[in-house]
Amino acid sequence: MAAYRQDHVSAMGRVGAFAILLLYTAISLLSLYLMLSSSLTRLGSSFSLSDLDWIPRDWAWDNFTGFFDLTHDSAWTWLRNSLLVALVPTCCNLIFSAMAGYALAKIDFPGRLFFFWLIIAVMAVPSFVTLIPLYQMMFSFGWFDTFFALIVPRMAGLGGVFLFKQFMSTLPRELMQAARVDGASEWTIFWRIVMPMARPVLAVMFLLDFVGAWNDYFWPYLVTNSKDMMTLQVGLISLIGVDQGFVFPVDYGIIMAGAVMVSLPVIILFVALQRFFIQGLTIGAVKG
User: Fold this and answer.
1) Residue of 221, 248, 245, 249 whose CA lies nearest to 233
2) d(Cα 238, Cα 234) in Å, to the nearest integer?
3) What Rg value do the Cα atoms of the chain yield, rounded?
4) Contact 35/259 with Cβ under 8 angstroms?
5) Domain limits of the chain?
6) What is the dihedral angle through the alpha carbons of 69, 31, 245, 145, rounded to the nearest 10 degrees?
7) How does pLDDT run across 184-229, given as a tens digit for each residue?
8) How far is CA 154 from CA 69, 97, 227, 235, in A?
9) Rounded Cα distance, 163 and 132, in Å
10) CATH architecture, range 72-283
11) Whole-prediction pTM value?
């Protein structure tokens, strides 16, 4: 009888957990569905939620081509900028973080523990605290409204160093020691032994960094001024404001169509690397 009650309570717990997860999933996907639905609807220059239908009555597929007509082909320039801002810093950050994480995890040098705890302490500082000094640096270097301001600050990050250090601490030292006995240098060990074994964490870091850089709006908006230096996110927001020269009424259906196209690369990348994302939730929790 006690076993039956325990199984009954366990089953009710699983049902309750599934219901909560289902509700959370529905709420999370609601905004995406409304964006997709509105992108296929002719909304005009103003709209409210009452203007939307769960299934569009008049499928406005021309909203997607209208987005490029509205931007006068500036969208292709914004796409190029977003790809550069997302890919170049992400690849650089992967290399620098992997090298630093390997050094902290597998190379004995004076002050290693001190530098590791210093990294953790700096990670506790909110990123907005450094915005003003970083913004002043861009002006001092003459990098305002250039790719240097968009790319260089993202080329290295402490979060990646911590993640790689925790992951590489789990790798067996016997592999490195055997390679050193065979005469392999530290570079050979790093590139031919450690990096192939670190492919899961590389995929996780690439996903997190790329999505963060692709979706970033505030920093590109802060350090760019011309239309040719805008990213997709900044350019998309500029379409509904008068400060960028768009003084005519804009169809919000076209804006939502642009938002759908901007979201597609991130969605596709997440679906392709989703099996690595779960691993990323536990990599940093491994004791080093």
Assistant:
1) 221
2) 6
3) 24
4) yes
5) 2-39, 72-283
6) -100
7) 888 888 888 888 888 888 888 888 889 889 988 889 988 988 888 8
8) 32, 12, 21, 20
9) 27
10) Orthogonal Bundle (1.10)
11) 0.80
